[in-house]
Amino acid sequence: MSNYKPNDSKREEFRRYLERAGVLDALTKVLVMLYEEPEKPDDALEYIRKHLGGITDVTLKVESLEKTLEDVKAENRELKTKLAKLEISGDE
């Protein structure tokens, strides 16, 4: 019985790792897409491979766009600060 606990905690740790990495979400989405297919494909594994790659590409694109958005927000804050300083020095 004492050996069961470490295995259980390792499983839980691995599950949290998969969740943090987005694996569980991606697999769930692909499996839901397969479930909702009106015509089930002959090769379900190939369907999953094909669509999982697409989800991964979209995820990478979203992450890239989020990074770009943060960069633009930072630049916007910087430019607003510079503008405010110019307006103050122009009033003097």
TrEMBL record:
Residues 55-89 form a coiled coil. Keywords: Coiled coil, Nucleus. It is found in: Nucleus. Its main location: nucleus. One of its GO terms (cellular component) is nucleus. GO terms for molecular function: transcription coactivator activity. Belongs to the AMY1 family. This is c-Myc-binding protein. The gene is LOC105273965.
